[in-house]
Design brief:
- Helix content is about 40%, strand content about 15%.
- It is of the alpha/beta class.
- The protein has a single domain (about 15-340), classed as Glycerol-3-phosphate (1)-acyltransferase.
- Strand 9 and strand 10 (about 280) form a beta hairpin.
- Helix 2 crosses helix 3 (about 55-65).
- The chain is globular and about 60 Å long.
- The chain starts with a helix and ends with a strand.
- The structure holds 2-acetamido-2-deoxy-beta-D-glucopyranose (2 copies).
- One of its GO terms (molecular function) is 2-acylglycerol O-acyltransferase activity.
- Its EC number is 2.3.1.-.
């Protein structure tokens, strides 16, 4: 029986009923399928329906898409009910995913939560900030977490509605400025700074952060006087295996070129099979992931920050992230000899 094989190999599943194990596997697996296939599936379906008697459905949806085009730039459309789905709690328990608070984030100001690493598909970030499974709303009362992602994803039919219901917004400047200019304080935009490029380094046991030349988030924080908060997810890189290519290989060049054109990186990754940990498949490995939210760095507001100011806060931020990593790494299974690598 597949369940017992998973049981043997995954400590997190031990001592749970077979039903709970199945729900957890389903929770973790549906996330992967949704992220990879939901967008292409509904895009093809919409095109296909155009050539069937149900064509009116596609046309109506396109009208909706046109009318609703700007919503991802205007705070999105969250649905508390979906963020509260129990499938997300099963996904959380599968790894398990934890959220650790190290400092108060008072809701009398706004925050830029810059999160690292991206991993292959940001399992822990979704769980902690797009669902309330780890009680974000109780840990940080008054904050409104809003994960941001590639603007292009909001062109994909149905998928865009699904991710917006979970509180995702576009990572465009317009969208970020909109959120941080709301009269209601306590806005917390979550940005995966390394983005798709960092996904190319999501190798188990490694901690590469693409940050040296990424300064837009510091400029954003300065423009709005929002505090910068470093966030690090230990274990996020361990849930899939990744085929990496040397920096000077043609495969790497293809990945980087594709990323420049499309915004995301094609990568070859695998997890375990659905029914056996010894085969390969798309189910992530059940490895604990812990997202640690660091201390806020206060940033003054200046409407047109100079390069010196940006560099100053960027350097402060890099030091704070490094400190966060060093302070917590050994509690979450990272050897003392491992350090962050900044790219
Ligand atoms: C979330 O679900 C719990 C029970 O699972 C319920 O008590 C709570 O009211 C729900 N919250 C929202 C916002 O729907
Ligand atoms: C979230 O809060 C509820 C109610 O306070 C508690 O029962 C539950 O154990 C908490 N969950 C986590 C993951 O801390």
């Amino acid at each position: 029986m597949g369940g017992s094989q998973v049981l043997q190999s995954s400590p997190s599943l031990q001592g749970k009923t077979l039903q709970k194990q199945a729900l957890e596997v389903a929770g973790a697996f549906q996330y992967v399928l949704t992220i990879i296939f939901m967008g292409p599936f509904f895009t093809l379906l919409m095109v296909y329906l155009l050539f069937t008697p149900l064509w009116a459905f596609s046309v109506l949806y396109l009208v909706w898409l046109y009318l609703d085009w700007d919503t991802p730039n205007r705070g999105g459309r969250r649905c508390m009910w979906m963020r509260n789905w129990s499938i997300w709690k099963h996904q959380r328990d599968y790894f398990p995913i934890k959220l650790v608070k190290t400092a108060e984030l008072p809701p009398d100001r706004n925050y830029v939560l810059s999160s690292h690493p991206h991993g292959i598909m940001a399992n822990s970030i979704f769980c902690n900030f797009c669902t309330d499974s780890n009680n974000f709303s109780q840990l940080f009362p008054g904050l409104r977490p809003q994960l941001t992602t590639l603007a292009g994803l909001f062109c994909l039919p149905i998928y865009r509605e699904y991710i917006m219901f979970h509180g995702l917004c576009s990572v465009s400047r317009k969208s970020l400025d909109f959120i941080l200019s709301q009269p209601q304080l306590g806005q917390a935009v979550v940005i995966l700074i390394g983005g798709a490029k960092e996904a190319l380094y999501a190798v188990p046991g490694e901690h590469h952060v693409v940050l040296r030349r990424r300064k837009g988030f510091v400029r954003l924080a300065l423009r709005h006087g929002a505090s910068l908060v470093p966030v690090y997810s230990f274990g996020e890189n361990d849930v899939f295996k990744l085929k990496t290519f040397a920096e000077d290989s043609w495969q790497h060049l293809c990945q980087v070129t594709f990323k420049k054109l499309m915004g995301f990186s094609p990568c070859i990754f695998w997890g375990q099979g659905l029914f056996s940990a010894n085969s390969w498949g798309l189910l992530p490995f059940a490895v604990p992931i812990t997202t640690v939210v660091g201390h806020p760095i206060p940033v003054p507001q200046c409407l047109s920050p100079t390069e010196e100011q940006v560099d100053h806060y960027h350097a402060l931020y890099m030091r704070a992230l490094e400190q966060l990593f060093e302070d917590h790494k050994e509690s979450y299974g990272v050897p003392a000899s491992t350090h962050l690598t900044f790219l």
